[in-house]
Amino acid sequence: MKQYQYYLKKIGEYGNVSEIHYPIATVIGLPNIKPYELVVFEDEKLGEVFSLDKDKSQILLFSKDPPKTGSQVVRTDSAISIPVGDKLLGKIINPLGNSFFDETELAGLKEKVDLEPKTAGIAGRKRIGRPFLTGISLVDLLLPLGKGQRELVIGDRKTGKSSFLLTVVKNQITQGSIVVYAGIGKKKSDIKKLEEFFVKEKLVDSTVLVASDPFDSPSLIFITPYTAMAIAEYFAKEGKDVVVIFDDLSTHAKFYREVALLGGRFPGRESYPGDIFYIHARLLERAGNFKHKEKDEVSITAIPVVETVEGDLTGFIPTNIMGMTDGHIFFDSDIYYKGRRPAINVSLSVTRVGRQTQTPLKLEINHEITAFLAQYEKMQTFSHFGAELSDKVVTILKTGQKLQVFFNQHYKIIVPEEVEIVLLGLIWLKALNDQSDESVELLRKKFIELYQDKNQKKVFKEIMDSANFHDLLLKVSKKREELLKLISQSANPINK
Q1: Strand partners, 112
Q2: What structural domains does the chain harbor?
Q3: Mean pLDDT score of the chain
Q4: What is the pLDDT of residue 494?
Q5: pTM of the model
Q6: CB neighbourhood size of 121 (10 A)
Q7: H helices within 333-390, ranges in order?
Q8: Distance CA 365, CA 354 (A)
Q9: What is the C-alpha radius of gyration for the chain, rounded to an integer number of angstroms?
Q10: How big is the CA angle at 325 (ends 319 and 331), to the nearest 5 degrees?
Q11: Catalytic one of 352, 355, 444, 480
C-alpha cells in the first residue's frame, strides 16, 4: 500500500476530519470522492467511504486507534484490494490481507483483487449438477448438497455446528477443493485452535483462514467475509472448486448494526438498518457454479453460519439469510442433549438444489429412508406396549433403531459414499436387527478400513454401481454372510 504523500502528489486533493464517532470519521472536503473508495489519513491509517453527503463523507476506520480531529485525509481513486496467490494457502490473514497475528505484509503475493469485483451473471453460470459430499451419512443421504450451493448452517451455541464444519472441510480437501474459512470477530484462542486442527489433520496446504477478533475495529470485522469471498473467487478463476465458510453471519450483522447506528442510519426491526438484507445478499450471490474455459465448470460453495437463541428460527437475521440461500441445516439443541451426533433436525432442515445432483439410485434411497423414518417416528408412540406389539411393528422399531445408530456419527469419522450405501443396505435387509447397536459402529469402522484397500474398494464400487435400490439390495444380500463375519472379527480385539 502506497503512503499518504504519494496519493497527495498524485491526486492533489485532500479533506479534513471534522468529527469522529469511532469507527466512523466525518470528513469535509474531497469533492470527487466515490462510494467504497479507499482513503489514507496523514498518519497512514486506512479507511473506506461509508456514505456521502453534499459537503461531507463518512469514512469507516480500519485502525484500532482513530485519527485526530482536524487531520488530513486523501483519496486514492481505488477500492480496497487484497494480495492473492498460491502462497496464501496455509496462511492466517486479516481482512486487509496482512498477517493476522503481527499485521505484516505477506511476501511473494504480486497479484491483487478488489474486495467486491463484478460478479458473474446468469450467462456465466451453470446448473448445479455435481454432488457436494460432506462425509456425514445423515447429510449425504437425507439432505444432499451440490457444488456451488449456498447452504445455511443454523442452530444454538454448542450444538455441534463447528464440529460439522470441520468434517466438511476435511472431506472436501481430500476431494481436491480449496477451503477459505472466515472467522468473523472470533477470539484469537479460537483461531489458534482452528490452525492447530488444520496442522494436525494435514490440511494446511489447502486452506486460507481470514480472521478478525472482537477487539479489531468493527469496520475491519465488517469486511471479513468479503475478503474471504474475494479470495475464493480468485482460486475459482484458477480452476479450483472452493468452499467458503462464514463463521458466523449473526456476529457480522451485529457489528454492522453498530456501525450503521453510529453512522446515523435509521434503525429498523431489532435496530438493524434497512440495508441489512442487501449486505448479506450481495455476499452470498457471489457463490455458485460457474463456467470455466479450461475446467468447463468450477464452483464456490458457500456455507454461512447463523447462531440462534433457544432454537428460534423466526429471528430477523435467520429468516433473512434463509431467504437468500438454497436451504439450511438446523442443529437442534433437544437432539443434541439426547446424545445424537450430528444433532441435525432433518424435518426442519431443507436442501433446495442438492437432490438434483443425486443419481437415480441415491434419489430412490433418499425417498425410501425419508418415508421409513416418518413411519418409525409414528411407531415409537406404541413402543411402551412391549410384548403386545405385532411382529411388523417390532421389526420397524428395530430397523429404525439401527438407522438411528447408523446416522449417529462422531465428527472425526468421515464415511465414504460407497460405505454409507453398503452399510445402509445391510440395515435395510434387517440383517443387523438381531445384533447389538455396537455392531453398526463396528461394521462402519471395518468397512472404512477395507475401503482403503484397492481390491476391496472395487467390491464397494461394484455394489454401488446399481440401477436402482432393489438391484443394490440383491448385491448386498449375496455378500451378506461375508460382510457379517466382519462383526465377530472386529468384536474380539475390542472386548479384550
Answers
A1: 83
A2: 4-79 (2.40.30.20), 82-357 (3.40.50.300), 361-490 (1.20.150.20)
A3: 92
A4: 38
A5: 0.93
A6: 7
A7: 333-337, 360-379
A8: 14
A9: 26
A10: 65
A11: 352
